[in-house]
């Protein structure tokens, strides 16, 4: 190249010409390790078309609404399906209706929240990329203020305050999903209601020998003997047989009236025959070890010891309360009967906190 004076100017061969086009290509030619910068921002359809933006808003709100319906269906399935119902579902085969329905509805509830949040972020939230320098971990006041402003800007650009349909359905979905966890707590066991406060014993119920399945008579119980009894009408064919027996199981011991130290125990007995719950007041183990000379019974689980001649009070061990006593008498046929239920719940002393 020559200028007007006729002198020549050398041009480096590696400089781009005017036809090279992009600035990035220029940088790459001069410095292959330089930062090429961000590509030009491409607007989404929702950024330039409000109709498309409203459509995306309805899709997001619909997903959040579907999540709420999934949570409601989860609770409904928990109530409707019994735990032992088995159904055939292809291709899984025979499965528990309760487990399958709970898993399906909870998956719908959680997936819909995630899908709604992703669609919201990809179509409606600001998506312009920015570059920032790495900063120190210990931020100064200027950086903190910058982060705060970025948070405010991001919240504004997300449309959370402006798009009420998305905001309301999202809050509804996020509020309802934890209800599924609370409902699952119901599956820890049946609600006790008043079932633990009462047994099958009632006024006039005959004492049935658990070994012979025959009504007990006073002459059947010898001094120093230990006999186990259950209420009349309790049959092994009953669905709740074990549950009822676990609460109503009875120990029958005959003592000499002079050996009974507790006045109420004596009043509730019949000719020295006393009836106490067989269920330990510690953790509910069945008691069956009787020491004739001392009138003590021992729980085999944790060695709680009770004195049957003194209101079944605790002598040793972790049990916190005496064994409940059942008031007994005889009917016109000469059979031992109960005069009511236990005055306090049998077994572990939950009732002192109720």
UniProtKB/TrEMBL annotation:
Source taxon at top rank: Bacteria
Membrane-crossing segments per the record: 59-81, 101-121, 165-185
GO cellular component: plasma membrane
Cofactors (names): [2Fe-2S] cluster
Domain named Rieske: residues: 247-337
Entry keyword set: 2Fe-2S, Cell membrane, Disulfide bond, Electron transport, Iron, Iron-sulfur, Membrane, Metal-binding, Oxidoreductase, Respiratory chain, Transmembrane, Transmembrane helix, Transport
Cellular compartment(s): Cell membrane
Cross-referenced InterPro entries: QcrA_N (IPR045603), Rieske_2Fe-2S (IPR017941), Rieske_2Fe-2S_sf (IPR036922), Rieske_Fe-S_prot (IPR014349), Rieske_Fe-S_prot_C (IPR005805)
Biased composition (Basic and acidic residues): 1-11
One Gene Ontology MF term: metal ion binding
UniProt keyword annotation of Oxidoreductase present: yes
Region (Disordered) residue spans: 1-43
Function, as annotated: Iron-sulfur subunit of the cytochrome bc1 complex, an essential component of the respiratory electron transport chain required for ATP synthesis. The bc1 complex catalyzes the oxidation of menaquinol and the reduction of cytochrome c in the respiratory chain. The bc1 complex operates through a Q-cycle mechanism that couples electron transfer to generation of the proton gradient that drives ATP synthesis.
Family: Belongs to the Rieske iron-sulfur protein family.
Summary of subunit composition and partner proteins: The cytochrome bc1 complex is composed of a cytochrome b (QcrB), the Rieske iron-sulfur protein (QcrA) and a diheme cytochrome c (QcrC) subunit.
Protein's name in the database: Cytochrome bc1 complex Rieske iron-sulfur subunit
């Amino acid at each position: 190249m020559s200028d007007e004076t006729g002198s020549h100017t050398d041009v480096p061969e590696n400089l781009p010409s005017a036809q090279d086009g992009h600035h990035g290509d220029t940088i790459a030619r001069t410095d292959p390790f330089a930062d090429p910068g961000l590509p030009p921002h491409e607007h989404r359809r929702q950024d330039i078309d409000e109709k498309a933006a409203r459509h995306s808003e309805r899709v997001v709100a619909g997903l959040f609404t579907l999540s709420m319906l999934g949570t409601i269906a989860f609770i409904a399935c928990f109530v409707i399906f019994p735990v032992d119902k088995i159904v055939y579902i292809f291709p899984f085969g025979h499965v528990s209706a309760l487990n399958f329905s709970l898993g399906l509805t909870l998956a719908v509830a959680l997936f819909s929240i995630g899908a709604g949040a992703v669609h919201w972020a990809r179509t409606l939230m600001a998506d312009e990329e920015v570059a920032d320098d790495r900063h120190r971990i210990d931020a100064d006041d200027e950086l903190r203020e910058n982060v705060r402003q970025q948070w405010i800007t991001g919240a504004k650009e997300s449309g959370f305050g402006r798009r009420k349909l998305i905001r309301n359905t999202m809050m509804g979905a996020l509020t309802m999903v934890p209800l599924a966890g609370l409902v699952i707590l119901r599956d820890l066991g049946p609600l006790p209601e008043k079932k633990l406060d009462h047994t099958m014993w009632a006024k006039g119920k005959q004492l049935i020998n658990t070994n012979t399945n025959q009504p007990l008579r006073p002459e059947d119980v010898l001094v120093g003997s230990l006999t186990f009894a259950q209420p009349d009408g309790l049959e092994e064919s009953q669905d709740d047989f074990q549950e009822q027996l676990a609460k109503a199981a009875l120990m029958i011991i005959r003592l000499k009236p002079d050996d009974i130290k507790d006045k109420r125990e004596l009043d509730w007995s019949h000719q020295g025959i006393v009836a106490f719950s067989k269920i330990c007041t510690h953790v509910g183990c069945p008691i069956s070890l009787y020491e004739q000379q001392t009138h003590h019974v021992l729980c085999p689980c944790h060695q709680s010891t009770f004195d049957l001649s003194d209101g079944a009070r605790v002598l040793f061990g972790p049990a916190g309360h005496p064994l409940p006593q059942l008031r007994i008498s005889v009917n016109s046929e000469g059979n031992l009967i109960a005069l009511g239920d236990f005055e306090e719940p049998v077994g572990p002393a939950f009732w002192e906190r109720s």
